[in-house]
Inverse folding.
């Protein structure tokens, strides 16, 4: 196997503790473990990760925070990232350009032409649909059609596209007319040795006590971004709808950036006593906090984005209640508890039913961990990515 030089372009504040960053981190890590060289070009903001070579673009003085979601400021960040990636490509001479997200593919295209190497696009969701989810774009707005045409153009630039689900592949072929021969499915995966059910009950109870959660309460966990399209408000509405039937249940909601807003909202809804907001939890601390949970929830509303948090839940043997989306069904299969998307009443009822049936919850958790190990290992994903690289390198 030839040792490959992979230039990854990550148009985001890598590393931060949420979905697409975890995929970038795990892909780069497994490729390095397999003996390949990886350089990640990314924004000026974000945390460094031991063991990964990260090249950061220049920053802009008026914007120093971590970028999450769509923003006009990202235009400036992407221009600076394009300059940085060009300099790295000239100096380092990669064998392949691996662009994450649509902006990464767009930045990577001229670099692939300049170096005469293939461009692989790591597709993690629709560009315009995500902008709508983030309330950055309106379907009836003036910018929608130009952005849609830009999305169509980007989807046709790379030699190969990697998607994280069959649903994403269907989106590319059905809505954008992409050649299915160029599309390869490499699902989001999970490190099952890192994310595993708790072994130390004393440590679990100590953390539970440290978080102010009464020992006798069952715990429902959520870990991810807090935002409208993530269904955070729907989760709070479900808790409020459950009322007294959640008297013996506590909700541990972990994530950022809007934790203070949603905490205030919980207080206004008179459910604050049953909900703990931790704020941001570092990715490498996530298993310890998820171990506190008895059940997990995935209320994400987006129908096109991935939902990698579910794989962490699965690997931790956490039975999971989720809104019914194609991606969630692809991950959880017949072992998930599905609710009509956006229906907080049905979400509450499904959650209550699962909490009351401990035997069923334990069996679902066991089956989900088994599925995570068998179907979603990063070792398998790494071999598939390298196979795709080698199919196009030198062709």
């Amino acid at each position: 196997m030839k040792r490959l030089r992979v230039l990854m372009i990550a148009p985001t504040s890598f590393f931060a503790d949420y979905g697409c960053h975890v995929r970038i981190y795990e892909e780069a890590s497994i490729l390095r473990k397999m003996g390949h060289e990886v350089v990640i070009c990314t924004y000026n903001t974000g945390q460094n990760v031991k063991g990964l070579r990260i090249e950061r673009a220049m920053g802009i003085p008026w914007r120093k925070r971590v970028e999450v979601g769509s923003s006009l400021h990202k235009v400036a960040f992407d221009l600076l990232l394009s300059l940085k990636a060009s300099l790295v490509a000239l100096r380092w001479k990669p064998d392949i350009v691996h662009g994450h997200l649509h902006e990464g593919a767009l930045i990577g295209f001229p670099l692939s032409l300049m170096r005469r190497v293939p461009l692989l696009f790591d597709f993690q969701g629709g560009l315009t649909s995500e902008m709508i989810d983030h309330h950055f774009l309106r379907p009836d707005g003036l910018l929608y059609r130009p952005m849609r045409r830009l999305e169509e153009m980007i989807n046709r630039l790379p030699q190969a596209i990697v998607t994280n689900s069959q649903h994403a592949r269907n989106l590319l072929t059905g809505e954008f007319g992409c050649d299915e021969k160029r599309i390869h499915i490499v699902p989001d995966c999970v490190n099952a040795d890192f994310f595993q059910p708790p072994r130390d009950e004393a440590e679990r109870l100590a953390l539970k006590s440290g978080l102010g959660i009464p020992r006798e309460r069952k715990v429902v966990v959520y870990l991810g971004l807090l935002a409208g399209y993530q269904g955070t408000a729907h989760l709070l509405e479900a808790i409020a709808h459950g009322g007294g039937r959640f008297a013996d249940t506590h909700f541990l909601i972990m994530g950022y950036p809007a934790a203070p807003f949603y905490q205030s909202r919980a207080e206004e809804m008179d459910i604050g006593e049953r909900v703990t907001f931790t704020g941001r939890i570092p990715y490498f601390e996530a298993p310890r906090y998820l171990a506190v949970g008895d059940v997990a929830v995935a209320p994400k509303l987006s129908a096109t984005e991935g939902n990698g948090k579910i794989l962490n839940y699965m690997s931790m043997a956490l039975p999971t209640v989720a809104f019914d989306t194609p991606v969630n069904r692809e991950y959880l299969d017949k072992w998930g508890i599905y609710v009509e998307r956006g229906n907080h009443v049905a979400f509450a009822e499904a959650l209550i039913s699962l909490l009351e049936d401990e035997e069923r919850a334990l069996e679902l958790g066991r089956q989900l961990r088994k599925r995570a190990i068998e179907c979603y290992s990063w070792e398998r994903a790494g071999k598939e990515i390298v196979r795709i690289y080698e199919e196009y390198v030198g062709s």
In short: The chain is about 45% helix and 15% strand. The mean pLDDT is 92. The two ends are 16 Å apart (CA to CA).
